[in-house]
Design goal:
The complex is a heterodimer of chains A (903) and B (110). Chain A has 903 residues and is an alpha+beta fold. Chain A is built from 25 helices and 22 strands. In chain A, the strands form 2 sheets. A 6-stranded mixed beta barrel of chain A has the order 3-4-9-6-8-7. Chain A has a 6-stranded mixed β-barrel with strand order 14-15-20-17-19-18. In chain A, a hairpin with a 2-residue loop joins strand 1 and strand 2. In chain A, helix 11 packs antiparallel against helix 15, helix 15 crosses helix 23 and helix 15 runs antiparallel to helix 24. The two termini of chain A are 49 Å apart. In chain A, 42% of the residues are buried. By secondary structure, chain B is α+β, with helices and mostly antiparallel strands. In chain B, 55% of the residues lie in helices and 13% in strands. In chain B, strands 1-2 form a two-stranded antiparallel ribbon. The radius of gyration of chain B is 15 Å and the shape is globular. The termini of chain B are far apart. The chains are: A alpha+beta (903), B alpha+beta (110). At the A-B interface, helix 1, helix 2 and helix 4 of A face helix 2, helix 3, strand 1 and strand 2 of B.
Amino acid sequence: MPRQLLRTRLRSLFWRRSPEQEVDDELAQHLALTARRLEQAGLSPEAARAAALQRFGDLNQVRAECRVLAHEYEDDMRRRETFQELRQDASYGLRVLRRTPLFTTIALLTLAIGIGASTAIFSVVHAVLLRALPYREADRTVVIWNGYTQAGGRSHTAIAPPEFADVREQTQVFDAVAAVGRQTANLTGSCGGSSACEPERVAGYAVSPDLFRLLGTASPVVGRGFVDGDGAEGAEPVVLLSHALWMRRFAGDSSLVGRTIDVSGRLRTVIGVMPPEVRFPDAPLDFLRERGDLWIPHAWERNRSEERGNQYLGMIARLRPRASLAQAQRDLEAIGARFRAEWPDRYARADLRWGLDAFPLREHMIGEARSAILVVAGAVGLLLLLACANVAHLTLARGTVRQRELAVRTALGARRGRLVRQLLTESVLLALGGSVLGLLTAVVGVRLLVVLDPGNIPHLDTARVDGVVLLFTLGVALAAGLLIGLLPAMRQSQVRPSERLQDGARGAATGHPRRRLRSVLVVAEVAMALVILVGAGLLARSFIALQRVDTGFDSRDVLTVQLALPRARYDSASKIVAFHARVREQLATIPGVAAVGGADPLPMSGSGWSGSMYVEDLRVPPEQAEQHAEYAVALPGYFRAMGIPLLEGRDFTDADRRGAPLTVIVDERLAAKYWPGQSAIGKRINPNRAQGTWATIVGVVKHVYNAGPRQEGEPQIYVSFLEHIQHPLTYVLRTGGDPLSVVRAVRRAIASVDPELPVARMATMADLESRALARDRFNALVLSVFALTALVLAAIGLYGVMAYLVNQRTAEIGVRLALGGRPYDVVRLVIGEGMAMALTGIVLGVAVSLALSNVLAGLLYGVAPIDPLTYTAIAAVLALVALLASAIPARRAARVDPVAAHR
Amino acid sequence: MTPPSRPLLQGTLDLLVLRTLAWGPRHGYAIARWIEETTHDVLRVEEGSLYPALYRMQKKGWIRSDWGESELGKPIRIYSLTVKGRAELRAQSAHWDAVVAAMAKVLRPA
């Protein structure tokens, strides 16, 4: 076959006739030869020609047929030729790579890092941002909140049932509107088998029966979904389970459908199990934070007579086909106008600019995670470029060695395109090899990322290396291979062979353009490394700042236990009080427990309450009389157990109970806001706005960051639990040592009072606090790893180039030394060149970082995105690393033996 | 006049061309002449149909073409047998022999 190829090549080289032409010529010759024979046999030339034609048959048809065949053959040949060349290039490339094992190993590892990291991050991006939500209608679904404008910007609160009912009735733009509320879900009793199970508390939601239809969720894997009438007055109590809960607690038993389970003291018939990917709300929708385990239907419009201040629902609505978000906002504005007209004191306050605000569901679910992921993806992209630049360096350096080989091939007539293709084939081979190693890295990396799951990145747990990710990796590898090979290939194939051969013979390449190319690469590398390092540095500083925030309580040695008493069994205040009296008594006797208290909601737990109140004798315009504050209920002893300093007055006591005069404890901020410069003790506020229910302030405590260290929160009011009795409460125990050492005793103590009550939610306060910082830790950690890698890659790149330059200039350096130059001058020369490149890179990197600074701004806390300290420190570190990287080649240069250099 | 020619059996032309080229490389006209002479015109090849057959066999890799000079002093395609073509010739000849033997048995029972 190769000979055949050569022939084809030569022919096309010398004749360059089209296949059609060749066919015509061949047939014409046949006819001419036949005619000649017939002429020799005695026919006249005309007769001979006519006879030849006649013997030939249908000339036109034969010609047409032959032309088609000749064309096909030509195409075949060309394809085969290309493939053959590719195979030759590949096998030749592999031989070359095998001949230089050190180069190949370093290049492979560098690429494995770059491609591995990008693959791992891409699989997260794919899982979180790109893969569709498990809802067909997600793109026309919106979330609606009550919006208020306050000092800190627009804030949002939940929806009250009558507000939901009104929107549902009055909308012109939405074709379905649903409401979602949290639902206490204590599971007790059987798990499907005969024996009883541990009681357990899961994430339950009470939803409008059409919620899943609205979202366009796939139908349940077992049983049926909700239908209209489910959740209506007097309807059969039913429940839908998540696939996860069904598998975990009920071992995937499909005969469960149709049977009843005990949900918070009420027997409900299981009607179906949702598909595994459906965990609505899949990502935090404001206060609806936990992925759903079970759903109970509730027609929320039944609650329309409730107070409009009872805002505890999320509202989900679906736009009519082809309706826009702007139309939706106008529709909500029209409904809001009616609200304002009817309840001016609630909705029409000028300073709050109340309105119903709609957000696309997808954006809302992913919003928090998006910027973090994009920053990480950006960093990993830079890292990949760095890795490519480094391998390009290596290839360039090796190119020096290969000059002669390529020059010989050029001299022997290899086309420039063919040489370029040869070099590209080699770098693509390298990149493909690197991506195989990179995939292994990625598989491990993805597992690590999933373990680091900060809990608020939706679907992160579904990230894995799948087909799409593999395709991405392949694409990245090809792109990296071309990128790496292109520069050196262009460079090497340009030079005339005579020059190259002479150069090679003399052993001293001058090659100015090549050196410039290398310098550009190094400058770019340093700049990219600086950008990543600055990002990581800022995130790390921000994380440290967050950890240093004084959250107002002492999280060390504190255990928290969430309890939710089922309404069915605890149907009166006295039963609840009796339960807690006994539990407090039992817990206090546990050895190692120093203090017992309780509160709801607990700081850092993800939930919070806030509401309106009046302050007695406050001199403000009447429309501003309603003030806003955060609320919590607390058991006596809570502040001591939680380590919240009591600044003035007293804690609650058992006497602060129903029937006794109303008392409240406020935080320092509330006290300072309304009674600056005087004591708040004895002053009165009206926390629940009922007429004449004034409560006396008996204590002032330190302000607590309830929603995590990022949010200062509003002034706070604590109400006595014993006065404001409710079902959920979280116990807080201060222990003498490791809080986890008392876990078993706490379980026993609670079980001794009520064996049916689930105590699943036990967590140390330190855990809760660290969970509140999980996202920041995730960002800082991932970016730091990238940044360190980037630093190493940039250092290697710089070192490589300096070493190469010194090598190239051995002769020149030798001359300098021979002419009396001091080694010190040589060191200075080399280091000076290295530092010039590094400093250019640093300046460029600082400029790019500054330009990108607002991308990071949203992720930072307590540190400006243009923080001078971070910039200076990072620049200094890079400069130092650059100094080291050029010092080693510089020392070698200083030791050049002038005689040896000129031999 | 020429005796009435009989239509060629399917695939016979390929076999004839392979056989012809087994003696050595030649151009299309020469192949046609050789077939005509050795079969004494019993198997008359319609000369036009020879060329599509040649192109087809070249595509199959049984024969290849090089450039030579014709008796008229012009460049012309010279066809020759490839290794693959030689193997094909052996296989087709064997098959042909088998068919002929079988037909002979049927037509002239011993």
